[in-house]
Write a structure and sequence with these properties.
Elements lengths: L31 E3 L5 E3 L13 H21 L3 H6 L3 H32 L4 H18 L3 H7 L4 H7 L3 H4 L2 H8 L8 H10 L4 H14 L2 E3 L2 E3 L1 H7 L5 H17 L1 H22 L6 H7 L3 H14 L4 H11 L5 E2 L17 H15 L1 H12 L3 E2 L11 E3 L8 E3 L6 H20 L11 H21 L4 H18 L1 H17 L6 H16 L3 E2 L12 H5 L5 H19 L4 H10 L6 H5 L9 H20 L2
Parallel strand pairs: 5-9, 6-8
Antiparallel strand pairs: 1-2, 3-4, 7-8
Length: about 625
Protein backbone atom coordinates (compact mmCIF):
# COMPACT_ATOMS: atom_id res chain seq x y z
CA UNK A 1 0.00 0.00 0.00
CA UNK A 2 1.00 3.64 -0.28
CA UNK A 3 3.17 5.19 2.38
CA UNK A 4 0.34 7.46 3.51
CA UNK A 5 -2.11 4.62 3.93
CA UNK A 6 -0.16 2.20 6.10
CA UNK A 7 -2.26 1.27 9.09
CA UNK A 8 -0.71 -0.07 12.26
CA UNK A 9 -3.50 -0.41 14.77
CA UNK A 10 -1.00 -0.04 17.62
CA UNK A 11 0.50 3.16 16.27
CA UNK A 12 -1.46 5.51 18.50
CA UNK A 13 -0.80 3.74 21.80
CA UNK A 14 0.42 6.31 24.27
CA UNK A 15 4.18 6.25 24.60
CA UNK A 16 3.97 7.32 28.23
CA UNK A 17 1.70 4.32 28.99
CA UNK A 18 -0.50 6.25 31.42
CA UNK A 19 -0.58 3.95 31.22
CA UNK A 20 -8.86 -17.32 27.49
CA UNK A 21 -12.54 -16.77 26.78
CA UNK A 22 -13.66 -14.63 23.87
CA UNK A 23 -14.08 -11.02 24.92
CA UNK A 24 -17.19 -10.33 22.88
CA UNK A 25 -15.49 -7.61 20.83
CA UNK A 26 -15.86 -9.31 17.47
CA UNK A 27 -19.55 -8.76 16.80
CA UNK A 28 -22.84 -7.28 17.93
CA UNK A 29 -23.01 -9.33 21.11
CA UNK A 30 -20.48 -6.98 22.68
CA UNK A 31 -22.22 -5.15 25.50
CA UNK A 32 -20.80 -3.53 28.62
CA UNK A 33 -18.60 -4.56 31.51
CA UNK A 34 -18.10 -3.14 34.92
CA UNK A 35 -14.73 -1.93 36.09
CA UNK A 36 -13.30 -0.26 39.17
CA UNK A 37 -15.11 3.09 38.77
CA UNK A 38 -18.39 1.22 39.27
CA UNK A 39 -20.02 2.51 36.09
CA UNK A 40 -20.99 0.47 33.05
CA UNK A 41 -18.10 0.54 30.59
CA UNK A 42 -18.78 0.03 26.89
CA UNK A 43 -17.14 -2.48 24.60
CA UNK A 44 -16.84 -1.64 20.94
CA UNK A 45 -19.06 -3.07 18.23
CA UNK A 46 -16.68 -4.21 15.49
CA UNK A 47 -19.55 -5.59 13.42
CA UNK A 48 -19.50 -2.32 11.49
CA UNK A 49 -16.38 -3.81 9.91
CA UNK A 50 -17.17 -7.56 10.04
CA UNK A 51 -19.58 -9.62 12.11
CA UNK A 52 -17.00 -12.11 13.39
CA UNK A 53 -13.61 -13.63 12.63
CA UNK A 54 -15.28 -16.49 10.75
CA UNK A 55 -17.71 -14.25 8.85
CA UNK A 56 -17.94 -15.31 5.19
CA UNK A 57 -17.48 -11.66 4.19
CA UNK A 58 -13.86 -11.80 5.38
CA UNK A 59 -12.99 -14.74 3.13
CA UNK A 60 -14.88 -13.04 0.31
CA UNK A 61 -13.02 -9.74 0.74
CA UNK A 62 -9.63 -11.42 1.04
CA UNK A 63 -10.28 -13.23 -2.23
CA UNK A 64 -11.52 -10.01 -3.80
CA UNK A 65 -8.38 -8.22 -2.60
CA UNK A 66 -6.23 -10.88 -4.28
CA UNK A 67 -8.18 -10.66 -7.53
CA UNK A 68 -8.34 -6.85 -7.62
CA UNK A 69 -4.62 -6.54 -6.88
CA UNK A 70 -3.70 -8.95 -9.68
CA UNK A 71 -6.06 -7.23 -12.09
CA UNK A 72 -4.59 -3.84 -11.19
CA UNK A 73 -1.07 -5.09 -11.87
CA UNK A 74 -2.12 -6.56 -15.22
CA UNK A 75 -3.88 -3.36 -16.25
CA UNK A 76 -1.25 -0.78 -15.27
CA UNK A 77 2.20 -2.23 -14.61
CA UNK A 78 4.84 -0.93 -17.02
CA UNK A 79 2.44 1.54 -18.64
CA UNK A 80 2.36 4.61 -16.42
CA UNK A 81 5.02 6.76 -18.07
CA UNK A 82 3.83 6.06 -21.61
CA UNK A 83 0.08 6.30 -21.03
CA UNK A 84 0.31 9.42 -18.86
CA UNK A 85 2.19 11.20 -21.66
CA UNK A 86 -0.54 10.45 -24.22
CA UNK A 87 -3.50 12.76 -24.91
CA UNK A 88 -6.06 12.04 -22.22
CA UNK A 89 -3.32 10.71 -19.96
CA UNK A 90 -4.66 12.66 -16.98
CA UNK A 91 -8.01 10.88 -17.09
CA UNK A 92 -6.31 7.51 -17.61
CA UNK A 93 -4.05 8.02 -14.59
CA UNK A 94 -6.95 9.33 -12.49
CA UNK A 95 -8.84 6.07 -13.14
CA UNK A 96 -5.77 4.14 -12.05
CA UNK A 97 -5.42 6.13 -8.82
CA UNK A 98 -9.14 5.71 -8.02
CA UNK A 99 -8.85 1.96 -8.49
CA UNK A 100 -5.73 1.86 -6.33
CA UNK A 101 -7.53 3.87 -3.65
CA UNK A 102 -10.50 1.46 -3.64
CA UNK A 103 -8.14 -1.48 -3.13
CA UNK A 104 -6.41 0.42 -0.34
CA UNK A 105 -9.75 1.04 1.37
CA UNK A 106 -10.66 -2.65 1.22
CA UNK A 107 -7.27 -3.65 2.62
CA UNK A 108 -7.66 -1.05 5.38
CA UNK A 109 -11.00 -2.54 6.42
CA UNK A 110 -9.54 -6.05 6.64
CA UNK A 111 -6.38 -5.22 8.57
CA UNK A 112 -8.21 -2.79 10.85
CA UNK A 113 -10.69 -5.46 11.90
CA UNK A 114 -7.98 -8.06 12.47
CA UNK A 115 -5.82 -5.58 14.39
CA UNK A 116 -8.65 -4.34 16.59
CA UNK A 117 -9.76 -7.86 17.47
CA UNK A 118 -6.16 -8.66 18.36
CA UNK A 119 -5.82 -5.49 20.45
CA UNK A 120 -8.92 -6.55 22.38
CA UNK A 121 -7.29 -9.84 23.38
CA UNK A 122 -3.66 -10.40 22.40
CA UNK A 123 -3.47 -13.52 24.57
CA UNK A 124 -5.99 -15.61 22.60
CA UNK A 125 -4.11 -18.01 20.26
CA UNK A 126 -7.01 -18.18 17.79
CA UNK A 127 -7.13 -14.37 17.54
CA UNK A 128 -3.34 -14.18 17.19
CA UNK A 129 -3.45 -16.70 14.34
CA UNK A 130 -6.27 -14.81 12.64
CA UNK A 131 -4.35 -11.54 12.90
CA UNK A 132 -1.17 -13.12 11.53
CA UNK A 133 -3.03 -14.84 8.68
CA UNK A 134 -4.72 -11.60 7.59
CA UNK A 135 -1.39 -9.76 7.71
CA UNK A 136 0.17 -12.38 5.47
CA UNK A 137 -2.70 -12.30 2.98
CA UNK A 138 -2.53 -8.51 2.75
CA UNK A 139 1.22 -8.53 2.33
CA UNK A 140 0.96 -11.09 -0.46
CA UNK A 141 -1.75 -9.12 -2.26
CA UNK A 142 -0.01 -5.79 -1.91
CA UNK A 143 3.11 -7.16 -3.62
CA UNK A 144 1.14 -6.69 -6.83
CA UNK A 145 0.61 -3.01 -6.01
CA UNK A 146 4.18 -2.05 -5.12
CA UNK A 147 5.00 -1.08 -8.69
CA UNK A 148 2.45 1.73 -8.74
CA UNK A 149 4.06 4.39 -6.58
CA UNK A 150 7.51 3.34 -7.80
CA UNK A 151 6.48 3.86 -11.44
CA UNK A 152 4.65 7.08 -10.59
CA UNK A 153 7.91 8.50 -9.35
CA UNK A 154 9.57 7.64 -12.67
CA UNK A 155 7.05 9.68 -14.64
CA UNK A 156 8.70 12.88 -15.84
CA UNK A 157 7.83 15.94 -13.74
CA UNK A 158 6.63 17.94 -16.74
CA UNK A 159 4.47 15.06 -17.99
CA UNK A 160 2.82 14.62 -14.62
CA UNK A 161 2.24 18.36 -14.24
CA UNK A 162 0.53 18.47 -17.63
CA UNK A 163 -1.62 15.46 -16.71
CA UNK A 164 -2.71 17.17 -13.49
CA UNK A 165 -4.43 19.85 -15.55
CA UNK A 166 -7.20 17.23 -15.74
CA UNK A 167 -9.62 17.92 -12.86
CA UNK A 168 -10.02 14.22 -12.02
CA UNK A 169 -6.27 13.84 -11.49
CA UNK A 170 -5.83 17.31 -9.95
CA UNK A 171 -7.99 16.07 -7.05
CA UNK A 172 -5.10 13.76 -6.12
CA UNK A 173 -2.38 16.42 -6.43
CA UNK A 174 -1.57 16.46 -2.67
CA UNK A 175 -1.10 12.69 -2.66
CA UNK A 176 0.96 12.68 -5.87
CA UNK A 177 3.21 15.45 -4.58
CA UNK A 178 3.53 13.62 -1.27
CA UNK A 179 4.55 10.40 -3.01
CA UNK A 180 7.23 12.19 -5.01
CA UNK A 181 8.93 13.32 -1.81
CA UNK A 182 9.85 9.66 -1.34
CA UNK A 183 11.54 9.52 -4.75
CA UNK A 184 15.16 10.08 -3.57
CA UNK A 185 14.85 7.11 -1.18
CA UNK A 186 13.13 4.71 -3.56
CA UNK A 187 14.89 1.47 -4.46
CA UNK A 188 14.79 -0.79 -7.51
CA UNK A 189 11.45 -2.58 -7.81
CA UNK A 190 12.63 -6.08 -6.89
CA UNK A 191 14.47 -4.78 -3.82
CA UNK A 192 11.31 -2.95 -2.73
CA UNK A 193 9.37 -6.18 -3.22
CA UNK A 194 11.89 -8.14 -1.16
CA UNK A 195 11.76 -5.60 1.68
CA UNK A 196 7.98 -5.70 1.58
CA UNK A 197 7.56 -9.48 1.55
CA UNK A 198 10.15 -10.07 4.26
CA UNK A 199 8.45 -7.56 6.58
CA UNK A 200 6.04 -10.33 7.67
CA UNK A 201 8.90 -12.46 8.97
CA UNK A 202 10.95 -9.41 9.91
CA UNK A 203 9.90 -6.31 11.83
CA UNK A 204 6.19 -7.21 11.83
CA UNK A 205 6.95 -10.51 13.54
CA UNK A 206 9.12 -8.81 16.16
CA UNK A 207 6.37 -6.24 16.75
CA UNK A 208 3.90 -9.04 17.34
CA UNK A 209 6.31 -10.85 19.69
CA UNK A 210 6.64 -7.67 21.75
CA UNK A 211 2.85 -7.17 21.95
CA UNK A 212 2.12 -10.72 22.95
CA UNK A 213 4.96 -10.81 25.47
CA UNK A 214 3.82 -7.59 27.16
CA UNK A 215 0.22 -8.80 27.26
CA UNK A 216 1.09 -12.13 28.89
CA UNK A 217 3.54 -10.82 31.51
CA UNK A 218 2.30 -10.99 35.09
CA UNK A 219 3.57 -8.84 37.94
CA UNK A 220 3.30 -10.02 41.58
CA UNK A 221 1.80 -7.25 43.71
CA UNK A 222 0.11 -7.75 47.09
CA UNK A 223 -0.24 -11.49 46.67
CA UNK A 224 -1.82 -11.15 43.20
CA UNK A 225 -0.36 -11.58 39.74
CA UNK A 226 -1.49 -8.60 37.70
CA UNK A 227 -1.25 -7.65 34.04
CA UNK A 228 0.79 -4.59 33.13
CA UNK A 229 -2.03 -2.03 32.88
CA UNK A 230 -3.33 -2.40 36.46
CA UNK A 231 0.26 -2.33 37.74
CA UNK A 232 1.04 0.87 35.85
CA UNK A 233 -2.17 2.28 37.28
CA UNK A 234 -0.90 1.53 40.79
CA UNK A 235 1.91 4.04 40.18
CA UNK A 236 -0.86 6.64 40.59
CA UNK A 237 -2.26 5.04 43.75
CA UNK A 238 -2.65 7.20 46.85
CA UNK A 239 -0.90 4.58 49.00
CA UNK A 240 2.88 5.08 48.81
CA UNK A 241 3.53 1.44 49.71
CA UNK A 242 1.41 0.28 46.77
CA UNK A 243 3.27 2.60 44.39
CA UNK A 244 6.59 1.25 45.59
CA UNK A 245 5.42 -2.36 45.36
CA UNK A 246 4.15 -1.79 41.82
CA UNK A 247 7.42 -0.19 40.71
CA UNK A 248 9.44 -3.03 42.22
CA UNK A 249 7.20 -5.63 40.58
CA UNK A 250 7.64 -3.93 37.21
CA UNK A 251 11.40 -3.78 37.66
CA UNK A 252 11.67 -7.42 38.73
CA UNK A 253 9.56 -8.78 35.87
CA UNK A 254 11.24 -6.58 33.28
CA UNK A 255 14.64 -7.74 34.57
CA UNK A 256 13.59 -11.39 34.25
CA UNK A 257 12.64 -10.77 30.62
CA UNK A 258 15.27 -8.16 29.79
CA UNK A 259 17.26 -10.40 27.43
CA UNK A 260 14.19 -10.87 25.25
CA UNK A 261 13.37 -7.14 25.23
CA UNK A 262 17.01 -6.36 24.45
CA UNK A 263 16.98 -8.82 21.56
CA UNK A 264 13.77 -7.32 20.15
CA UNK A 265 15.14 -3.79 20.49
CA UNK A 266 18.53 -4.64 18.96
CA UNK A 267 16.96 -6.56 16.09
CA UNK A 268 14.50 -3.82 15.17
CA UNK A 269 17.16 -1.13 15.43
CA UNK A 270 19.40 -3.14 13.10
CA UNK A 271 16.50 -3.77 10.73
CA UNK A 272 15.90 -0.03 10.57
CA UNK A 273 19.60 0.68 10.04
CA UNK A 274 19.68 -1.71 7.08
CA UNK A 275 16.63 -0.07 5.52
CA UNK A 276 17.94 3.46 6.17
CA UNK A 277 21.35 2.59 4.68
CA UNK A 278 19.88 1.09 1.52
CA UNK A 279 17.53 4.03 1.06
CA UNK A 280 20.17 6.65 1.74
CA UNK A 281 18.83 8.31 4.89
CA UNK A 282 21.68 10.18 6.55
CA UNK A 283 20.28 10.58 10.06
CA UNK A 284 18.66 7.87 12.21
CA UNK A 285 15.41 9.86 12.41
CA UNK A 286 15.24 11.16 8.83
CA UNK A 287 12.81 8.47 7.67
CA UNK A 288 10.40 9.50 10.45
CA UNK A 289 10.74 13.17 9.52
CA UNK A 290 9.96 12.30 5.91
CA UNK A 291 6.91 10.26 6.94
CA UNK A 292 5.77 13.15 9.14
CA UNK A 293 6.41 15.65 6.34
CA UNK A 294 8.32 17.84 8.74
CA UNK A 295 11.80 19.25 8.21
CA UNK A 296 14.66 17.97 10.37
CA UNK A 297 15.56 21.51 11.42
CA UNK A 298 12.02 22.05 12.75
CA UNK A 299 12.31 18.95 14.96
CA UNK A 300 15.82 19.90 16.03
CA UNK A 301 14.56 23.34 17.06
CA UNK A 302 11.74 21.76 19.07
CA UNK A 303 14.06 19.31 20.84
CA UNK A 304 16.66 21.98 21.59
CA UNK A 305 14.01 24.32 23.01
CA UNK A 306 12.52 21.63 25.25
CA UNK A 307 15.87 20.36 26.53
CA UNK A 308 16.96 23.92 27.33
CA UNK A 309 13.69 24.35 29.25
CA UNK A 310 14.08 21.24 31.44
CA UNK A 311 15.22 23.31 34.48
CA UNK A 312 12.28 25.72 34.05
CA UNK A 313 9.74 22.93 33.55
CA UNK A 314 10.24 19.43 34.95
CA UNK A 315 13.07 20.22 37.38
CA UNK A 316 11.12 23.14 38.80
CA UNK A 317 7.80 21.30 39.03
CA UNK A 318 9.17 18.13 40.63
CA UNK A 319 11.00 20.21 43.24
CA UNK A 320 7.64 21.83 44.01
CA UNK A 321 5.92 18.44 44.18
CA UNK A 322 8.59 17.09 46.52
CA UNK A 323 7.88 20.00 48.88
CA UNK A 324 4.16 19.14 48.81
CA UNK A 325 5.13 15.66 49.98
CA UNK A 326 7.52 17.21 52.55
CA UNK A 327 10.54 15.54 50.96
CA UNK A 328 13.77 16.72 49.39
CA UNK A 329 13.47 14.10 46.64
CA UNK A 330 10.76 11.84 45.26
CA UNK A 331 11.44 8.23 44.29
CA UNK A 332 10.66 7.54 40.65
CA UNK A 333 7.51 5.66 41.66
CA UNK A 334 6.19 8.86 43.24
CA UNK A 335 6.57 10.94 40.08
CA UNK A 336 2.89 10.55 39.13
CA UNK A 337 1.58 10.09 42.68
CA UNK A 338 -1.72 11.85 43.38
CA UNK A 339 -1.22 15.06 45.27
CA UNK A 340 -1.97 15.10 49.02
CA UNK A 341 -4.75 17.63 48.46
CA UNK A 342 -6.26 15.98 45.36
CA UNK A 343 -9.72 14.40 45.34
CA UNK A 344 -9.69 10.68 45.99
CA UNK A 345 -12.96 9.53 44.45
CA UNK A 346 -13.11 7.53 41.23
CA UNK A 347 -14.77 9.30 38.30
CA UNK A 348 -17.56 7.22 36.82
CA UNK A 349 -17.90 6.64 33.11
CA UNK A 350 -21.07 8.70 32.74
CA UNK A 351 -19.47 11.64 34.51
CA UNK A 352 -16.32 11.39 32.39
CA UNK A 353 -18.44 11.33 29.23
CA UNK A 354 -20.39 14.40 30.36
CA UNK A 355 -17.20 16.30 31.25
CA UNK A 356 -15.65 15.80 27.83
CA UNK A 357 -18.76 16.31 25.71
CA UNK A 358 -19.72 19.47 27.62
CA UNK A 359 -16.27 20.91 26.97
CA UNK A 360 -16.45 19.98 23.29
CA UNK A 361 -19.98 21.43 22.99
CA UNK A 362 -18.89 24.79 24.43
CA UNK A 363 -16.20 25.03 21.76
CA UNK A 364 -18.15 23.61 18.79
CA UNK A 365 -21.51 21.83 18.65
CA UNK A 366 -20.32 20.05 15.51
CA UNK A 367 -17.28 18.70 17.34
CA UNK A 368 -19.45 17.48 20.23
CA UNK A 369 -21.92 15.83 17.85
CA UNK A 370 -19.14 13.85 16.18
CA UNK A 371 -17.65 12.86 19.54
CA UNK A 372 -21.08 11.81 20.77
CA UNK A 373 -21.32 9.14 18.08
CA UNK A 374 -18.43 7.25 19.67
CA UNK A 375 -20.71 6.67 22.67
CA UNK A 376 -24.08 6.16 20.97
CA UNK A 377 -22.73 3.93 18.19
CA UNK A 378 -20.35 1.94 20.40
CA UNK A 379 -17.07 2.94 18.83
CA UNK A 380 -15.27 2.76 22.22
CA UNK A 381 -13.82 -0.19 24.14
CA UNK A 382 -13.21 0.99 27.70
CA UNK A 383 -12.82 -1.85 30.27
CA UNK A 384 -9.55 -3.33 31.48
CA UNK A 385 -9.42 -7.03 30.51
CA UNK A 386 -6.76 -9.75 30.71
CA UNK A 387 -4.86 -9.85 27.43
CA UNK A 388 -6.13 -6.47 26.22
CA UNK A 389 -3.53 -4.08 24.80
CA UNK A 390 -2.37 -1.58 27.41
CA UNK A 391 -2.58 2.18 26.95
CA UNK A 392 -5.02 3.88 24.62
CA UNK A 393 -5.44 4.68 20.95
CA UNK A 394 -7.89 5.90 18.33
CA UNK A 395 -7.62 3.87 15.15
CA UNK A 396 -9.01 5.51 11.99
CA UNK A 397 -9.71 2.17 10.20
CA UNK A 398 -10.62 3.33 6.70
CA UNK A 399 -12.75 6.17 5.27
CA UNK A 400 -15.58 3.85 4.22
CA UNK A 401 -16.02 2.89 7.90
CA UNK A 402 -15.23 4.96 11.03
CA UNK A 403 -12.65 5.16 13.84
CA UNK A 404 -12.57 3.04 16.99
CA UNK A 405 -11.14 4.02 20.37
CA UNK A 406 -9.43 1.67 22.84
CA UNK A 407 -9.09 2.75 26.47
CA UNK A 408 -8.24 1.07 29.77
CA UNK A 409 -10.56 3.19 31.89
CA UNK A 410 -10.11 2.99 35.68
CA UNK A 411 -11.68 6.22 36.89
CA UNK A 412 -8.55 8.29 37.45
CA UNK A 413 -8.56 12.00 36.50
CA UNK A 414 -5.89 11.15 33.91
CA UNK A 415 -8.28 8.59 32.42
CA UNK A 416 -10.75 11.41 31.77
CA UNK A 417 -8.03 13.37 29.99
CA UNK A 418 -7.13 10.25 28.00
CA UNK A 419 -10.77 9.98 26.91
CA UNK A 420 -10.69 13.64 25.83
CA UNK A 421 -7.41 13.00 24.02
CA UNK A 422 -8.57 9.96 22.07
CA UNK A 423 -11.91 11.58 21.19
CA UNK A 424 -9.89 14.45 19.72
CA UNK A 425 -8.16 11.93 17.48
CA UNK A 426 -11.50 10.36 16.63
CA UNK A 427 -13.12 13.68 15.65
CA UNK A 428 -10.07 14.47 13.51
CA UNK A 429 -10.27 11.10 11.77
CA UNK A 430 -14.00 11.47 11.06
CA UNK A 431 -13.53 14.98 9.64
CA UNK A 432 -10.58 13.92 7.46
CA UNK A 433 -12.26 10.76 6.10
CA UNK A 434 -13.94 12.46 3.08
CA UNK A 435 -10.46 13.02 1.64
CA UNK A 436 -10.39 9.29 0.87
CA UNK A 437 -8.05 6.47 1.79
CA UNK A 438 -5.01 8.09 0.19
CA UNK A 439 -5.34 11.61 1.59
CA UNK A 440 -7.22 11.22 4.88
CA UNK A 441 -4.19 10.05 6.94
CA UNK A 442 -2.44 12.93 8.68
CA UNK A 443 1.29 13.18 9.47
CA UNK A 444 1.88 12.19 13.07
CA UNK A 445 2.98 15.66 14.14
CA UNK A 446 -0.38 17.14 13.14
CA UNK A 447 -2.29 14.02 14.18
CA UNK A 448 -1.54 14.89 17.81
CA UNK A 449 -2.92 18.42 17.47
CA UNK A 450 -6.61 17.49 17.72
CA UNK A 451 -6.04 15.06 20.59
CA UNK A 452 -4.08 17.50 22.74
CA UNK A 453 -6.53 20.29 21.88
CA UNK A 454 -9.36 18.06 23.12
CA UNK A 455 -7.51 17.65 26.40
CA UNK A 456 -6.98 21.39 26.67
CA UNK A 457 -10.66 22.13 26.09
CA UNK A 458 -11.63 19.66 28.82
CA UNK A 459 -9.06 21.01 31.25
CA UNK A 460 -10.06 24.64 30.68
CA UNK A 461 -13.72 23.76 31.16
CA UNK A 462 -12.99 21.98 34.44
CA UNK A 463 -10.77 24.73 35.77
CA UNK A 464 -13.36 27.38 34.92
CA UNK A 465 -16.07 25.57 36.90
CA UNK A 466 -13.94 24.66 39.94
CA UNK A 467 -14.33 27.01 42.90
CA UNK A 468 -12.56 25.02 45.63
CA UNK A 469 -8.99 26.32 45.95
CA UNK A 470 -7.43 22.94 46.70
CA UNK A 471 -9.23 21.23 43.85
CA UNK A 472 -8.19 24.01 41.50
CA UNK A 473 -4.61 23.53 42.64
CA UNK A 474 -4.91 19.79 42.04
CA UNK A 475 -6.33 20.34 38.54
CA UNK A 476 -3.52 22.75 37.66
CA UNK A 477 -0.90 20.32 38.98
CA UNK A 478 -2.48 17.45 37.06
CA UNK A 479 -2.39 19.47 33.85
CA UNK A 480 1.23 20.42 34.40
CA UNK A 481 2.12 16.77 34.97
CA UNK A 482 0.31 15.79 31.76
CA UNK A 483 2.16 18.49 29.85
CA UNK A 484 5.50 17.38 31.28
CA UNK A 485 4.66 13.80 30.33
CA UNK A 486 3.69 14.97 26.84
CA UNK A 487 6.53 17.40 26.18
CA UNK A 488 9.50 16.70 28.46
CA UNK A 489 9.07 12.93 28.74
CA UNK A 490 8.54 12.44 25.02
CA UNK A 491 11.55 14.56 24.06
CA UNK A 492 13.59 12.52 26.55
CA UNK A 493 12.25 9.37 24.85
CA UNK A 494 13.34 10.81 21.50
CA UNK A 495 16.81 11.55 22.89
CA UNK A 496 17.01 7.98 24.19
CA UNK A 497 16.03 6.56 20.82
CA UNK A 498 18.59 8.71 19.03
CA UNK A 499 21.35 7.55 21.36
CA UNK A 500 20.29 3.90 21.04
CA UNK A 501 19.99 3.87 17.25
CA UNK A 502 23.23 5.81 16.75
CA UNK A 503 25.14 3.43 18.99
CA UNK A 504 23.46 0.37 17.42
CA UNK A 505 25.09 1.32 14.12
CA UNK A 506 28.41 0.39 15.73
CA UNK A 507 27.24 -2.97 17.08
CA UNK A 508 24.77 -4.73 19.35
CA UNK A 509 23.97 -3.13 22.71
CA UNK A 510 23.83 -5.12 25.93
CA UNK A 511 20.83 -4.73 28.21
CA UNK A 512 23.11 -2.97 30.67
CA UNK A 513 24.18 -0.44 28.04
CA UNK A 514 20.59 0.24 26.98
CA UNK A 515 19.79 0.80 30.65
CA UNK A 516 22.68 3.28 30.97
CA UNK A 517 21.40 5.30 28.01
CA UNK A 518 17.91 5.26 29.51
CA UNK A 519 19.08 6.42 32.93
CA UNK A 520 21.16 9.20 31.39
CA UNK A 521 18.30 10.83 29.47
CA UNK A 522 15.82 10.27 32.29
CA UNK A 523 18.14 11.85 34.85
CA UNK A 524 18.68 14.85 32.58
CA UNK A 525 14.98 15.36 31.91
CA UNK A 526 13.50 14.68 35.36
CA UNK A 527 16.09 16.60 37.34
CA UNK A 528 17.54 16.36 40.85
CA UNK A 529 14.20 16.17 42.68
CA UNK A 530 13.44 12.72 41.22
CA UNK A 531 15.54 9.84 42.54
CA UNK A 532 15.89 7.00 40.05
CA UNK A 533 15.99 3.96 42.28
CA UNK A 534 17.58 0.59 41.35
CA UNK A 535 15.38 -1.26 38.89
CA UNK A 536 14.34 1.83 36.92
CA UNK A 537 17.07 1.09 34.40
CA UNK A 538 14.74 -1.55 32.86
CA UNK A 539 11.70 0.69 32.37
CA UNK A 540 12.54 1.39 28.72
CA UNK A 541 11.43 -2.17 27.98
CA UNK A 542 7.66 -1.61 27.93
CA UNK A 543 7.38 1.57 25.83
CA UNK A 544 5.49 0.43 22.71
CA UNK A 545 6.48 3.31 20.43
CA UNK A 546 10.13 2.28 20.53
CA UNK A 547 8.99 -0.96 18.89
CA UNK A 548 6.08 0.02 16.64
CA UNK A 549 6.98 3.53 15.51
CA UNK A 550 10.62 4.55 16.04
CA UNK A 551 10.98 8.28 16.74
CA UNK A 552 7.21 8.81 16.79
CA UNK A 553 7.40 10.27 20.26
CA UNK A 554 8.44 13.80 19.35
CA UNK A 555 5.02 14.14 17.69
CA UNK A 556 3.49 14.45 21.17
CA UNK A 557 5.74 17.37 22.10
CA UNK A 558 5.14 18.93 18.69
CA UNK A 559 1.38 18.62 19.19
CA UNK A 560 1.38 19.96 22.75
CA UNK A 561 3.42 23.06 21.92
CA UNK A 562 1.34 23.60 18.80
CA UNK A 563 -1.89 23.36 20.79
CA UNK A 564 -0.59 25.77 23.43
CA UNK A 565 0.08 28.29 20.68
CA UNK A 566 -3.27 27.57 19.00
CA UNK A 567 -5.14 27.96 22.27
CA UNK A 568 -3.46 31.30 22.88
CA UNK A 569 -4.83 32.46 19.52
CA UNK A 570 -8.28 31.14 20.51
CA UNK A 571 -8.23 33.01 23.83
CA UNK A 572 -7.36 36.25 22.09
CA UNK A 573 -10.24 35.94 19.63
CA UNK A 574 -12.99 33.31 19.56
CA UNK A 575 -14.61 34.78 16.45
CA UNK A 576 -14.37 32.26 13.61
CA UNK A 577 -11.71 30.20 15.38
CA UNK A 578 -13.73 26.96 15.67
CA UNK A 579 -14.55 27.04 11.97
CA UNK A 580 -10.89 27.54 11.02
CA UNK A 581 -9.84 24.82 13.45
CA UNK A 582 -12.30 22.24 12.11
CA UNK A 583 -11.28 23.15 8.55
CA UNK A 584 -7.68 22.45 9.51
CA UNK A 585 -8.68 19.00 10.82
CA UNK A 586 -10.81 18.30 7.74
CA UNK A 587 -7.77 18.87 5.50
CA UNK A 588 -6.37 15.51 6.61
CA UNK A 589 -3.09 14.87 4.83
CA UNK A 590 -3.71 17.26 1.95
CA UNK A 591 -1.69 20.21 3.24
CA UNK A 592 1.71 20.88 4.83
CA UNK A 593 1.88 22.06 8.44
CA UNK A 594 3.00 25.53 7.31
CA UNK A 595 -0.16 25.92 5.18
CA UNK A 596 -2.42 24.66 7.95
CA UNK A 597 -1.01 27.00 10.58
CA UNK A 598 -0.91 30.11 8.39
CA UNK A 599 -4.60 31.05 8.99
CA UNK A 600 -3.78 31.24 12.71
CA UNK A 601 -0.67 33.39 12.21
CA UNK A 602 1.62 30.58 13.42
CA UNK A 603 4.87 29.25 11.92
CA UNK A 604 6.61 26.16 13.41
CA UNK A 605 9.86 27.16 11.73
CA UNK A 606 10.19 30.18 14.02
CA UNK A 607 11.99 29.62 17.36
CA UNK A 608 9.44 31.89 19.04
CA UNK A 609 6.73 29.37 18.16
CA UNK A 610 8.23 26.71 20.45
CA UNK A 611 9.11 29.20 23.16
CA UNK A 612 5.52 30.39 23.20
CA UNK A 613 4.22 26.87 23.69
CA UNK A 614 6.66 26.17 26.52
CA UNK A 615 5.83 29.48 28.17
CA UNK A 616 2.27 28.24 28.74
CA UNK A 617 3.62 25.38 30.88
CA UNK A 618 5.91 27.76 32.74
CA UNK A 619 2.95 30.02 33.45
CA UNK A 620 0.95 27.18 35.01
CA UNK A 621 3.91 26.21 37.21
CA UNK A 622 4.29 29.82 38.31
CA UNK A 623 0.59 29.89 39.20
CA UNK A 624 1.05 26.77 41.33
CA UNK A 625 4.05 28.30 43.10
CA UNK A 626 2.00 31.38 43.87
CA UNK A 627 -0.68 29.20 45.50
CA UNK A 628 1.72 27.71 48.07
Amino acid sequence: MARTSKRNVKSNVKASAKTGAKTGTTGRKAAVRRSSPGAALPEWNLADLYAAMDAPEIARDLDRLDADSLAFEDAYKGKLAEETARPGGGDWLARAVRTYEAIDDLAGRLISYAGLVHAGNTADPAIAKFYGDVQERLTAASVHLLFFTLELNRVDDAVLETAMATPALAHYRPWLEDIRKDKPYQLEDRVEQLFHEKSVSGYAAWNRLFDETIATLRFPVGGKKLAIEPVLNLLQDRDAARRKAAAQALAATFKTNIRLFSLITNTLAKDKEISDRWRGFADVADSRHLANRVEREVVDALVAAVRAAYPRLSHRYYALKARWFKKKKLAHWDRNAPLPFAATRAIGWSEAKAMVLTAYEAFSPQMAAIAGRFFTDRWIDAPVRPGKSPGAFSHPTTPSAHPYILLNYQGKPRDVMTLAHELGHGVHQVLAAPNGALMAPTPLTLAETASVFGEMLTFRRLIATTRDRKQRQALLAGKVEDMINTVVRQVAFYSFERALHEERRKGELTAERIGELWMSVQGESLGPAIELKPGYETFWAYIPHFIHSPFYVYAYAFGDCLVNSLYAVYERSHEGFAERYLAMLAAGGTRHHAELLAPFGLDAREPAFWQGGLAVIEGLIAELEAME
